[in-house]
């Protein structure tokens, strides 16, 4: 059984940010027609994962200068039990942490990182080696024949010896729910009174079509375990059942309910990459969908609780899939705390999880000095001041208006400050130039300008 899945538009956006911040561009190069495209690469080529531990892989996303679309990433063919613990955008790509519980079996498999965007699809396969212990199937316990379903049999002959005292039956739990094809169990207790010392025989009535039942043991003084195994063809529904206890010429009964569901039972959890963003900002949310049975199925995801006008990348997930999706908040969203609820549906199974998103604050950019003069063939340096509400998505920086026959570069300093350098050549035409630096926070653009006089 393999797991699919990994849509990551937000992560791709952050990758775009990291790439843009390290770009050297020239007006001559910008005139070349480069096909809009992107490539993926996963490092290392072989990822070793020990059960009970975690491993990190790096996804490099390289985009052409003309490719402006978001890129959605998916991890296809993850082994069952292996899941994505976290992901984070870094300069040039995305770090993805995967983990496996101690119960995962050893395996060597090919996993594919798939990227889609702008009508293009790219794949980067790598090898995943899981090192763990093999899980042996539980021993098969022979089941006695299922007692016939039907009305209560006639009262036993009076010649049957009846024990002293009285008894009653109780059951725990009273109700269970299982997917069709799965098994469940109930504990049935014999509660004696007045010195009761008889042996009770157990019987079940009302079993649905395609299901089987067994009592282990079938005769007992204290109680028994009722095991019900449904069939894949057992219809969905709630089934009232009756357990009879027969002792001597007495019959005592207890009621219980079996709920059979279609689809596959699963759990759902979400991890927000950021919980605070500015109006117009973008955030990524990780959705983990894990199987609670051996059955796999599609899980439709829906989203609620976001500000009006928000957009969410639509997703149909697969059981045992980890997926990433993008939330874009509109620029006119009121500052508030919004509870984002993600609901997954598979057949009759519905599960939900939520995360709180805080929308508040603004973003700005400044540049100094606001004017400079430099001869041709020299380097001019400007300091950038970027201010944004804590938790805002990383900005994507772009530069326009720089002189012809010149290049620009954005530098990240160790103290967290950023600088813009403009390098002219001997062929750069003299004159006054207005240079604009734009920072995009999600869908919010803020800009600052400065002057450069080339002499």
Please tell me how large the radius of gyration is. Answer: 33 Å
CATH class of the largest domain: Mainly Beta
Q: How many domain modules?
A: 3
Report the helical percentage.
under 10%
Outline the biggest β-sheet: 5 strands, mixed
CATH topology of the largest domain: Immunoglobulin-like
Oligomer: single chain
> Helix/strand/pairing class, anyone?
mainly beta
Number of strands: 36
Explain what the structure shows.
It contains 2 helices and 36 strands. It has 455 residues and is mainly beta. The chain has 3 domains: 1-133, Immunoglobulins (Immunoglobulin-like); 166-261, Immunoglobulins (Immunoglobulin-like, Sandwich); 363-454, Immunoglobulin-like, CATH 2.60.40.10. The strands form 8 sheets. It has a 5-stranded mixed beta sheet, with helices on one face. It has a 5-stranded antiparallel beta sheet with strand order 2-33-34-31-29. A hairpin with a 2-residue loop joins β35 (431-441) and β36 (444-454). The longest helix has 13 residues, at 9-21. The radius of gyration is 33 Å and the shape is elongated. The N and C termini lie far apart (68 Å). Mean pLDDT is 81; it is low at 6-30 and 133-140.
Question: Quick gist of this model?
Answer:
With 455 residues, the chain is mainly β. Helix content is 4%, strand content 57%.
């Amino acid at each position: 059984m393999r797991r699919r899945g990994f849509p990551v538009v937000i992560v791709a956006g952050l990758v775009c940010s990291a790439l843009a911040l390290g770009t050297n561009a020239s007006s001559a190069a910008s005139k070349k027609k480069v096909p809009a495209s992107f490539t993926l690469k996963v490092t290392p080529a072989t990822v070793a994962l020990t059960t009970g531990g975690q491993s990190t892989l790096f996804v490099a996303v390289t985009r052409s200068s003309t490719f402006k679309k978001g890129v959605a990433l998916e991890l296809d063919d993850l082994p069952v039990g292996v899941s994505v613990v976290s992901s984070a955008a870094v300069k040039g790509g995305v770090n993805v942490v995967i983990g496996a519980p101690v119960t995962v079996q050893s395996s060597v498999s090919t996993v594919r990182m798939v990227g889609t965007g702008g009508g293009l699809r790219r794949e980067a396969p790598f090898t995943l080696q899981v090192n763990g212990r093999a899980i042996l199937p539980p021993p098969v316990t022979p089941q006695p024949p299922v007692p016939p379903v039907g009305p209560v049999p006639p009262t036993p002959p009076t010649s049957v010896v009846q024990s002293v005292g009285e008894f009653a039956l109780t059951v725990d739990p009273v109700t269970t729910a299982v997917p069709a094809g799965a098994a469940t169990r109930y504990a049935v207790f014999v509660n004696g009174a007045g010195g009761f010392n008889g042996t009770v025989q157990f019987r079940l009535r009302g079993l649905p079509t395609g299901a089987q039942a067994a009592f282990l043991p079938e005769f007992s003084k204290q109680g028994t375990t009722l095991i019900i195994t449904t069939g894949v063809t057992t219809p969905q529904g709630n089934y009232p059942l009756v357990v009879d206890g027969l002792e001597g010429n007495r019959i005592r009964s207890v009621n219980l309910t079996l709920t059979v569901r279609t689809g596959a039972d699963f759990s759902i959890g979400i991890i927000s990459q950021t919980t605070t963003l500015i109006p117009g900002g973008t955030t990524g949310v990780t959705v983990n969908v894990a199987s609670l049975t051996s059955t796999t199925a599609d899980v439709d995801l829906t989203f609620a609780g976001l500000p009006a006008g928000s957009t969410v990348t639509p997703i149909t997930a697969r059981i045992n899939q980890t997926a990433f999706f993008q939330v874009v908040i509109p620029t006119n969203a009121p500052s508030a705390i919004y509870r984002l609820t993600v609901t997954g549906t598979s057949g009759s199974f519905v599960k939900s999880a939520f995360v709180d998103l805080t929308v508040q604050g603004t973003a700005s950019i400044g540049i100094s000095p606001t004017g400079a003069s430099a001869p041709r063939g020299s380097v001019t340096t400007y300091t950038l001041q970027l201010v944004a509400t804590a938790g805002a998505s990383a900005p994507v920086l772009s530069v326009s208006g720089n002189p012809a026959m010149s290049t620009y570069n954005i530098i990240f300093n160790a103290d967290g400050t950023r600088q813009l350098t403009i390098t002219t050549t001997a062929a750069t035409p003299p004159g006054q130039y207005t240079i604009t630096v734009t920072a995009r926070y999600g869908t919010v653009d803020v800009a600052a300008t400065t002057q450069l006089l080339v002499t």
